[in-house]
Amino acid sequence: MKLKMVLACVCLSTSLMLSGCSNTKQTTTAETKSVQTEEKSVSDEEASKDIFAMDTYMTVTAYGDQAQEAVDEAEKEIQRLDELLSTGNEESEIAKLNQTGSATLSEDAGYLVERALELNKETDGAFDIAIYPIMEAWGFPTQNYQVPTEDTLKSLMQLTDASKITYNEDSRKISFGQEGMKIDLGGIAKGYTSSRIMNIFKENNISSGLVNLGGNVQALGTKTDGSKWRVAVQSPDDTEDYLGILSVQDKAVITSGGYERYFEQDGKTYHHIIDPKTGYPAENGLTSVTIVSEDGTLADGLSTSLFIMGKEKAIEFWKAHSDEFDTIMLTKDGTLYVTEGIGDDFSTELNVEIVKR
């Protein structure tokens, strides 16, 4: 049996190089490049820091009189949330919950579980934090990749159902309805982290800043010259190329695609975005989904959910929630579907169909 593992590498480039390029294990699903073309005003203090956390490289950049303080606080917040939420850290709150099956959660973890369960219902199960046992069976958390047997997946499917999770929003008490259940908040943790950093920026009177958490980009305000931030959406076919440029202000831009983390076995490619209804990698005709929203947590969760849904269901979902987010979807035939809310802010040389409400 031939087993070949391939990791995607992405360079995050700006006119003031924000971070280098490195092979990383992606725990959430986003590959983007932030592009800043104009020079910042010399009167604005800039602070930027490269950080390795949550199994990926991150860059936090702020402009303003308290820029350094804001970046330092952001780094501490990233490390705190990583230690709290990581399934790979045996001392983390989530790892301990997975060991015992019940707990009283912290405010951060409780908020994320609450949002995750809401998303599970809204997406008809496409987003499911209880998928972790199946992710383990495929070897994605450890990079010990393998194709599980049908019998293995069939037995694990009984454990991967978020509706079996009991959670009390007032007490933040959580319990699993079946022994062996485990959760993973990685599908929304980075989006939540970037939103937390936006709050830290505002508390430090920062009005212009950019966060890139392993490809999950969130922008505060505009660039220092007053123009919008320009974010290049990564192409799934080439880590040095991109699908187009999106101009944003006060928005998160988060992309999911099977190209982020995958392996090949016996000539077939298996990616890490697992469909909770089948236990296998989602194959619904999409190769990339980008979500644009003011809510980083929502954008993170929906980028995975819409990828699993496929184009038709994803469009229906957007039409029902178009006031909360916009999306860019790439199909296997190379067509880009862009919702009308960002149609004027997205430029590309590829074939585009504008999706209207």
Query: How large is the count of helical segments?
Result: 8
The averaged pLDDT comes out at 88
Radius of gyration: 20 Å
And the CATH topology? T-fold
Number of domains: 1
What order do the strands of the largest sheet run in, or round the barrel if closed?
5-6-10-11-14-17-18-19-21
Describe this structure in words.
By secondary structure, this protein is of the alpha+beta class. The protein has one domain (3-84, 187-355): T-fold (Roll), CATH 3.10.520. Helix content is 28%, strand content 29%. The protein has eight helices and 21 strands. A nine-stranded mixed beta sheet has the order 5-6-10-11-14-17-18-19-21, covered by helices on one side. Strands 4-12-13-20 form a four-stranded antiparallel beta sheet, with no helix packed on it. The N and C termini lie far apart (48 Å).
Blueprint of the fold:
Elements lengths: L2 E5 L1 E3 L9 E3 L8 E4 L10 E8 L2 E8 L3 H19 L7 H8 L1 E3 L2 H16 L9 H7 L11 H7 L8 E4 L4 E4 L9 H18 L4 E6 L2 E5 L8 E6 L7 E7 L3 E5 L4 E5 L2 E4 L14 E8 L2 H14 L1 H10 L5 E6 L4 E4 L6 E2 L4 E4 L2
Parallel strand pairs: 19-21
Antiparallel strand pairs: 1-15, 2-3, 4-12, 5-6, 6-10, 7-9, 8-9, 10-11, 11-14, 12-13, 13-20, 14-17, 15-16, 17-18, 18-19
Helix pairs in contact: 1-6, 3-7, 6-7, 7-8
